[in-house]
Design goal:
This protein is mainly α. The protein has one domain. 83% of the residues lie in helices and 0% in strands. The chain has three helices and no strands. Helix 1 packs antiparallel against helix 2. The radius of gyration is 23 Å and the shape is elongated. It starts with a helix and ends with a helix.
Length: 132
């Protein structure tokens, strides 16, 4: 085996690794989008429940249009933010993959911060529901 075929084989292996990383980045973006759609849909549903409670003249005593609008809107904003963050992360990963000397680099824990935001919205909703 000569040096040229060894370099060619290494080049093929590197390109296949880049392609796997690219596909993984695309799957991650799709996961961000699915999560965002779920949050936006849930936020919209919560807001609609508040409107139905208002129309029912207080038969659903713990629901108010204001509470449900605030928490529904918070989930919608969080969903939109998740989409934007996922797109930002995808763009940076693709830019890193294009570098000739691509190496794995630890990235910020964006998903963890989005999860913390979702937990905060959930805890605030629970506190408001239990207090009123």
């Amino acid at each position: 085996m000569n040096a040229d075929s060894s370099n060619n084989q290494t080049s093929v292996v590197n390109e296949l690794a880049r392609e796997r990383n690219r596909e993984a980045a695309d799957r991650t973006l799709l996961a961000w989008i699915r999560t965002s759609l779920a949050m936006i849909s849930l936020g919209f549903a919560i807001e609609r429940v508040g409107q139905v409670a208002f129309v029912m003249d207080g038969r659903l005593a713990n629901f108010s249009p204001l509470k449900t609008r605030v928490f529904g809107s918070a989930l919608i904003v969080l969903g939109i933010t998740a989409t934007l963050v996922g797109m930002w992360e995808h763009r940076h990963v693709l830019a890193a993959i294009k570098n000739a000397d691509y190496r794995y680099a630890d990235r910020p824990a964006v998903a963890r911060w989005m999860g913390i935001g979702l937990v905060c919205v959930g805890l605030a909703a629970l506190a408001v529901i239990l207090m009123y």
